[in-house]
Amino acid sequence: MAQQEEELIRTDPRGSPPRRKRPAALPIWGESSAVMALYHSGVLADIAITLGILGFFYGLTQVSQEWAGILRPTVVIDLSLGSLPRYTFFSLIRGLAAYGVSLGFTIVYGYWAAKDKLAEKLLVPILDILQSIPVLGFMPGLVLALVSLFPSSNVGLELASILMIFTGQAWNMTFSFYNSLKSVPQYLQEAGTVYHFSWWQRLTQIEMPYSAVGLIWNSMMSMAGGWFFLMVTETFQLGNRDFRLPGIGSYMSVAVERGDTKAMIGAVVAMILMIVALDQLLWRPIVVWAQKFRIEDTTQEEVMESWFLDLLRHSHILRWLGTIGASIRRSLHRSPVQSSQVPAAAVTSTSSSDSPARTANRPVAGILVSRLGFVLLAAGLAVALVQVVRLLASVSAAEWVRLVQSDLLTLARVTAAILLGTLWTVPLGIRIGLSPRLSRIMQPVVQVAASFPAPMLFPAVILILTSLNIAIGVGSIILMLLGTQWYILFNVIAGAQAIPSDLKEAAANYHFTPRQRFWSLYIPAVFPYLVTGWVTAAGGAWNASIVAETVTFRGSTLTARGIGAVISQAAFNARFGELSGAILIMALTVVLINRFVWRPLYALASTRYNLSK
Amino acid sequence: MADTITEQQPVLLASDHVTHLFPMPNGNMMTVLEDITMDIRKGEIICIIGPSGCGKSTFLRILAGLIRPTKGKVLSRGSEMSGLTPGVAMVFQMFALFPWMTVSENIQSVLVSQHLPEGEVQRRVNSVIKMVGLEGFEEAYPREISGGMKQRVGIARALAVQPELLFMDEPFSAIDALTAESLRADVVDIWEEAEGQPASILMVSHDIKEVVYMADRIVIFSANPGRIRAVVPNNLPRPRDYRGADFLAMVDYLHDIITTNELPDVPPAVVSTPSQPVYEPLPPASSSDVVSFVEYLDSHGGQGDVFVLAHEFGKEFSELINIVKAAEMLGFIETPKQRTILTPLGRRFANMDTEEQKIVWKQQILTLNVFKTLYADVQASRNGIMLDDEVQERLAQLLPNENPEFTFQTLINWARFGNLLAFDEDSDEVTLQ
User: Fold this and answer.
1) Partner B contacted by A54 (CB < 8 A)
2) Do B92 and A502 count as a contact with CB atoms less than 8 A apart?
3) Chain-chain contact of B98 with A503 (C-beta, under 8 angstroms)
4) 3-state SS record for A522-534
């Protein structure tokens, strides 16, 4: 009790200040001053950057060799620890390539939907549907199709992998970008109009900076979600066909097959290192850099720092590149002004660099492109819709019944998984969130655990399950839980951190018993966060069911009765009618649960349990 | 109750040489409270008043047992205690109501630990709701009621546990002035009729009029570090009239004490020599506020009363004090007692254009040892660049009792205005202009 009271000590009124970065280089510090001098002179940074670039290019040559390599009937994996870096790099490249595709898609799709009111009516519902459909269901079909397109080389498989990862990354990034574009403050847009911003200038100087913070955070989350799909494609086997690609996932899968514990541990460590490295060397510096785009709130959140960004800032190479970039930009800006020499006659009517005629032409061209795209999209959708309806009509009534039964079974599994997950994550999450010290230590750990792709561990877990004679019907719950419980945990931690201190003080002051504290304060306070965690976890569980309800183990297939298994089998056996029916049923279930379970819970959270009054 | 000579009443709660230190990011310890000794007797209302940052809220929590002081003791009826002080109920500035409970559920929640029989719980809830005038609102949720009503619930909740001591942490500062006035009167009424529950009230406030209205004893704190400056007895008979002559005289008296403390006429007897320079803390006022203030004085007769000015600007008194201190440090005004008067330099300054003002500003800030030293440091450093962390380290050395981050912000603000130093937030570099 006393310790809890200790922790109620008021912190500095401005919130937690930034961590100390490094000691000051005062002259009395002799030796360390020499190291600091080296650091500040930028030599260290330049060396690091040069080595990094060289290493990256070497890695790229390896990747291109692999892509151009011959398609083999089964994946060839060298289980020595020395080849782990190569496999890690392959996986990394796939993830980054998919992210690049996602980012491009996000910007184009989001911009189109935000700017064109007509297209928006079609684009946003499509995005909604895409988010609800378990796209993993299309994976077997996609893989088969692409492999038949490129029968002799690995390109088909790689493309399939990248596309699948893309589907795991793109949707929430696009939504975030779209929402940011729509919520740019009126006054910023007006300033742009008054000062005659072109559409490009508006995009790069108003809209993208405004969306930057949201886009970056969503990118981080998407990248993490993408690992899941990467692992699924890398470990993809169906029956006796082996579609595995060389990478960490397949390395792990082969290691489990051969019972090589050292290799398994190595793979897990490599994955963790890759996640941490990506976070420290890519995401954190970008997030810190993007802090200059934040719109000031009254509440200042913790200022983030990145040692890597500081290192880069000292580098001479980058500074030199920066000046080149700046001079290029300057010369670009000069030409439009020169080319739009306003003819003498028009001088009296306008003083801006863009004459009225030009600004009038720009939107017209844009609208034309947009309308064309809309027509094509609508046409494509209509065709697809007709096909799908025809397929659905081919499903018999008995089959529909079977599909619904399987769906209900999977629903039971998802619910069980969420319940099990909640049972252990809520008490632990609250304990961690209430203690600033524990939070600081545990949050990065939980983030890595949440990014860690569960499918990578599937081979090992399945091994354990079969040796314990646990049927896949129950075992699949564990598999689903593995990936998704972390979402609940870190939302609960965030919720516990956000409990206002005066409520905690009141509970202490009025002698609340621990039980009362838990049920009357902690649980209600984290409820909104818990709901978010549940929604994310449930979504992940449904997706995971496709690869959890039917698994390949030592050449044989273990299948549970459930809609995920149906989807998987139907896709593999090219029974497209059944596949469409199953996907439709699963999507419908998700939508219904959204409407009748999550939405009311959210409403409750935003009224009765809302802490911001 | 108000007529009782409280000196003869028993001491309910006392603090004995309480000192509280708080660790700062650079590792130094900041003294939030220094050597606070005071007592609360039975049957009185005590108010603690002081500028923001003087630790009065922290002190309240130490007395309530929510925080353990670094040094010193808290004595409950003469015996030392650790942990929650018995018989204390607290009312919070931001109400601290549980948003998912109705008004009566909020009150019931604090009775759980009292282990009362069922009928008694209901009786108490009804009785306190009636006491604060919230009948009819039992089933309402906090989001449905106004700020003033929320605080009534907070007070009702505190009264429900029948405390001996009622602690209030700036209870009316988040409520509009009109409602606050009526609430104050209600609290005094409740206390007078309360028959010992609560026996005494300890309230923290920053509003002088509120304190004169409510308190039997007024404890004045000063900041950096938080210390008791004065304890003023207030024997005005109740009910008190905000416009009564004796009320206003008491307000004036308090104004006097506060300005004497915050803006001393005779500066502390420490002599600054080149070998042992004294470093003055920088009051957290922005350069634009100081310039505006000096110009305002110039266009309004060249002088003014500090409290009247605070009222005119609508600024909280302690905020204005910082601007006044800053202007005084830079030689633009003088502050005898409660008045501020422009110096000849100040008068000239107010009538210059911005270019000239910056030149004079620069010259004036360089008369302060903090700026002299830091400027020399930046000049002497490698490439004439210092990092913000290095500057803050230096400030922590020169001004150990101040928060180096806040001092840094003020330093940079003043230095930028005077074209003395430049600061790039992206690269964290402080350079010469």
Assistant:
1) no
2) yes
3) yes
4) HHHHHHHHHHHHH
Distance (Å) from the C-alpha of residue B333 to the closest C-alpha of chain A?
31
pLDDT at A43: 75
- CB contacts of A299 in chain B (<8 Å) are none
Beta bridge partners of B385: B431
How far apart CA B117 and CA B125 sit, in angstroms, is 13
In chain B, which among 114-153 make CB contacts under 8 A with chain A?
141-143
Question: In this predicted model, what pLDDT tens digit does every residue of B222-266 receive, in sequence order?
Answer: 877 788 989 999 999 988 999 999 999 999 899 888 877 777 766
CB pairs under 8 A between A and B: 109
Q: Does the pTM of the predicted model rise above 0.95?
A: no
What are the Cα distances from residue A412, in Å, to A60, A408, A416, A531, A532? 45, 6, 6, 18, 20
Task: Specify whether the CB–CB gap between B88 and B98 falls below 8 A.
Answer: no
Partner-chain contact A520 B110, CB within 8 Å:
no
Report the phi/psi class of residue A460: left, alpha or beta, with left for phi > 0 and alpha for psi in -120 to 50.
Answer: alpha
Can you read off the two tokens belonging to residue A200? 């490009």
* Rounded Cα gap, residues B235 and B216, in angstroms: 6
Cβ-defined contact of B92 to A506 (cutoff 8 Å):
yes
- Strand-strand pairing, B165-169 and B200-205: parallel
B387 vs A contacts (CB less than 8 Å):
24
Cα–Cα distance, B198 to B167 (Å, whole number): 10
Q: What is the DSSP letter of A329?
A: H
Strand segments, DSSP code E, in B42-195 are 45-49, 71-76, 79-81, 88-91, 165-169
Provide the pLDDT confidence category of residue B204 given band limits of 50, 70 and 90: very high
What count of residues does chain A have? 613
Residue A295 DSSP label: P
How many angstroms separate the CA atoms of B182 and B200, rounded?
A: 20
Q: Measured on CA atoms in the order A264, A267, A269, A271, is the torsion positive or negative?
A: negative
For chain B, the residue count is: 433
Which tens digit of pLDDT belongs to each residue from A502-543? Answer: 999 999 999 999 999 999 999 999 998 899 889 888 888 888
B297: part of which helix (H) or strand (E)? Answer: helix B287-299
Residue whose pair of structure tokens reads 């911003």 in the numeric block: A197
Do B216 and B2 form a contact (C-beta atoms < 8 A)? yes
b (16+ CB within 10 A) / e for A276-309: eebbebbbbbebbbbeeeeeeeeeeeeeebbebb
Interface list for B 186-215 with A (CB within 8 A)? none
Residue of A nearest to B167 (CA): A509
Residues from chain B that touch A505, judged by Cβ atoms under 8 A, are: 61, 66, 90, 92, 96
Structure tokens belonging to residue A29? 């510090």
Model ipTM value: 0.77
